[in-house]
């Protein structure tokens, strides 16, 4: 998958999130997850949805180090099923 395809799919998944603090149109690659409104529980719920869609779930250490949307996009570019 291309970065653009991954970004589009992530945007769709984010639109379904109830805890969003930001307008979906303002969320970009450099947006930090804490700015979006995720807490430790809701980010896991979101990541399970990401796993269902992309077939990839980062190890906990990798997930903890992901600060921005671009970190997740890069991870999925390298690990997502086609």
Broad structural category: mainly alpha
Q: Beta-sheet strand percentage?
A: under 5%
Query: What string, H for helix and E for strand, traces the elements in order?
Result: HHHHH
Overall pLDDT confidence: 91
What does this structure look like?
- With 82 residues, this protein is mostly helical.
- The protein has one domain (3-79): ACP-like (Non-ribosomal Peptide Synthetase Peptidyl Carrier Protein, Chain A, Orthogonal Bundle).
- Helices cover 60% and strands 0% of the residues.
- It contains 5 helices and no strands.
- Helix 1 packs across helix 5.
- The longest helix has 15 residues, at 40-54.
- The chain is globular.
- The chain starts with a helix and ends with a helix.
- The mean pLDDT is 91.
Task: Give me a quick take on this structure.
The chain is mainly alpha-helical and about 80 residues long.
Describe this protein with a few key phrases.
Non-ribosomal Peptide Synthetase Peptidyl Carrier Protein, Chain A, 5 helices, 60% helix, mainly alpha, 82 residues
Write the topology of this structure.
Blueprint: H1 3-15, H2 33-36, H3 40-54, H4 60-65, H5 69-79
Helix pairs in contact: 1-3, 1-5
